[in-house]
Amino acid sequence: MLAPTVLVVDDEQLIRWSLREGLSQAGYRVLEAETGREALERCDEDVDLVLLDYKLPDSDGLTILRQIKDAYPDTLVILLTGYSTIERAVEAMKHGAHHYANKPFNLDELLLIVEKALETTRLRREVRALRASQGEPYGFDRMIGESQEMRDLKGLLRKIAASPASTVLITGETGTGKDLAAKVIHYNSSRAARPFMNITCSALAENLLESELFGHERGAFTDAKQQKRGLLETADGGTVFLDEIGEMTPPLQAKLLRFLEEKAFKRVGGVHDIRVDVRIIAATNKDLDQAVRDGRFREDLFYRLGVLTVQVPPLRARGEDISLLMHYYVDAFNREFRKNIHGLTSDAMQALQAYGWPGNVRELRNAVERAMLLADSDVLTITLFPMLGLVRPITQTFQLPPRGIDLDQLERDLVVQALKRTGGNRTKAATLLGLNRDQIRYRIEKFGLE
Q1: Average pLDDT over the chain, rounded to an integer
Q2: For site-directed labelling of 106, which of 24, 56, 232, 285 has its Cα 20 to 30 A away?
């Protein structure tokens, strides 16, 4: 890593020499300038920080400070002066100075200020690099699938990303990739350079969720020892993703609706309106229409959120994409686990394509990850996917229906037999079939066996 570059700007040679010696011993690359004009010219040499004297032969420090910040906004400036006043310090900070040091200065103290300033520069660059890298994985090619359902979904997401709409509602079953759809919208929109903040509404109690969203003032409640900015403030110019919006309580629904209508909110315990520009993307696996009819979700908020609605299809509705997803995750985990799995056996692929995938893409990803970790050969076999294991033990303990019956009917009959044998006990029926509780519950609902 290259050493940070510090530009020392002072017309006194002794001060420049003293700073050069101290900074060089601390491991910094040091440049020097005697005048404001020379300082501006040397800033072209990838300068990270400027130590700038307030009194220069051809200008004053504040003028040069403004010119440096206009031309090189990421370059930090520490102003040095022998004529310190509070007013001058405030003025310097207003014009973009990172810090203000008095002459004569203690070299050790000044080196500590420089070190902290350059740490700020490093962190800023890392944040920018992280944001840039986060944007790359969320192109439309991350939406794996060539089915008509996926082509329609990608087309809709492109239109939404390009639109100025402030609210989007994403619906779909658990595990379908609603969070990925939200990120694709954000990182392909004009808001991509600004923050993407997300929160799961069911993960926090009402008061904590309110504080996370809107922030709070010091003393607003028992543990509010200092002021806190909420996600809406932090994401100004960007996007806030509210997952599981159907779990939000009515009082919070009302506060969210006010924000959507007025573009303003108050922190918890606050009295002043705060205005921000954010896009709200909400997601749910619930039937919000039914929740509105049941009085659990505000009708006005439902219509306000649903200006643009995206329905992410379940995996079983786009079976032709299963093979693409399988190979995508095999390739991904080959890189992560440093393996060389070539693919799946034909019987494993056929069984996986016939499987109902109640957990959708998330379940598929987890299944491939587990199989890759346990695989002893260069292909994945059917035995590595335990959710398919119901066929083998069942053939020994259950009466199979006649040949020629379709897979859905076979699956239904096996679930019915398991429930009869266990007296309707879902947990025991799931154990007999080699399923978990969520998988047996899904099949009971799927086949109307309530």
Answers
A1: 85
A2: 56
